[in-house]
Amino acid sequence: MSIDVSSPPLPGAEPLAPQDPGSLFAMAVDNVNTAGALCHLPEYVGAILSQPKNEIIVHFPVRLDDGRYRIFKGYRIQHNNVLGPYKGGIRYHPDLSLDDTKALALWMTMKCALMRLPFGGAKGGVKIDPRSVSSAELMRVTRRFTTALAANIGPETDIPAPDVGTNSQVMDWMMDTYLNTHGNSGIGLRHVVTGKSIACGGSEERDKATGQGLVYVLLELLPEFKIKLSGMTVSLLGFGNVAGYAASILTAAGATVRAVMDHSGSIIGSAGIPVEPLRSYVAQHGSIAGFAAPGVRPAHREEFYRTEVDLFIPAALERMVDHQVAQWLNCRIVAEGGNGPTTPEAAAILRRRGITLLPAILCNAGGVTVSYLEWVQNKTGVHWEAVHVDRELRKTITLAARRVRLAAHSLDTDMCNAAFCVALEHISRSYQQRGIFP
Ligand code: GLU
To answer: What is the rounded distance in angstroms from the CA atom of residue 3 to the CA atom of residue 10?
Structure first.
């Protein structure tokens, strides 16, 4: 596959160097540049994608329960909208930075393009530990943040969704705030946000969509490796929404979860960790620490990574799979459930060791795909049954997985480069047809 360059590159359109070469954003730009070189991406498209269109930084005061006020910092990075409205999650995390948000927004552009959704890419959030504030404080933070962003988001311009540290409750507050500050719109604009609760116009299956999407990708791609879900062994880094649902669906299909690690530590159960009791435990206690079951024991970090499994799913924060972890891993496939979990050095080590890496922009795209389905339902005033949503999700993500496999074969490259090439080709065609204004 190669992108047809019908016009010469624009003069002066060489990609801009990101400010910090070791940053997460530099890593994301590198994904584009590496794949771009492989599929002959026109230089000017690479240059456009090497910076976000808009970087919005806001500061706002919120009254705490004890009567004091605290100033919060929030971001919304609108990376690209050539294919449709900016789209992407809102993260609440104490370490959130501008640079990380830019990287996550770029990956959203790629993810939506790869899925062929009519969306661009964005990401945002607030620098806050959501566990350190009360529910009432979290609601006030969300409402002030939404008000600060209100001129920049909208159902046809930029559509937030849940991400790390946020959930359907936060999305419901965002939607309510937006509707209350946009005249007499009733619920007509509720598709300003996706990932809402069902009561507020959310879609069936949105909660489990990312984990379910990952399993559909595996169903499509694993036969090539002669691995079946039934009998497959798995380890998971992280045990939140994505890993929890993926673990449930995989074990229901006959797989065995042998090791789990989260921010509190790790556990190993060579004959299998009971997933449903672990999920209930985590829902109650906030982490896997203290979980007990027959045959399950605590393990240290290195032991966790060295556990022999067919499949390893990193579904926590960015860059947790570094060169050391890549050397320890004892698996055949790594399926990225979280965004940007693997450093470029780790990816190179995995490649040398013959471990296949399935990229996040494919593996975790189930969430934004069902977000799109929610947006369509809201726009057209319908509510689809779970089976219908599930069928659409499966179709969309399976076709994307096929495109990636085909590109990997035709370009003779790995799945990561292939996924970025498929996304870039789609974006590039749109730029070439539209031209650059004026
Ligand atoms: N936060 C999710 C992601 O990183 C979902 C985004 C969305 O639904 O817009 O893909």
So the answer is: 16
Q: Which residues, 6 or more positions from 89, have their beta carbon under 8 angstroms from its beta carbon?
A: 104, 108, 123, 124, 125, 160, 161, 162, 163, 164, 166, 195, 367
Per residue in 226-259, is it b (16+ CB within 10 Å) or e — as a string?
Answer: ebebeebbbbbbbbbbbbbbbbbbbbeeebbbbb
CB of 163 within 6 A of ligand 1: the answer is yes
Helix or strand holding residue 124 (H, E): strand 121-127
Q: Which residue has a Cα nearest atom 7 of ligand 1? A: 368
As a residue count, the chain comes to 438
Each residue of 276-323: pLDDT tens digit?
A: 999 999 999 999 999 999 999 999 999 999 999 999 999 999 999 999
Separation of alpha carbons 410 and 120, rounded Å: 26
In this structure, which amino acid lies at residue 376? V
203 CB near ligand 1 (under 6 Å):
no
Query: Residues 50-107: pLDDT tens digits?
Result: 999 999 999 999 999 999 999 999 999 999 999 999 999 999 999 999 999 999 999 9
Domains of the chain: 52-187 (3.40.50.10860), 209-363 (3.40.50.720)
Q: Is the C-beta atom of 166 inside 6 A of ligand 1?
A: no
Q: Which atom of ligand 1 is nearest to the CA of 107?
A: 4
Residue whose structure tokens are 């669906």: 249
pTM tops 0.90:
yes
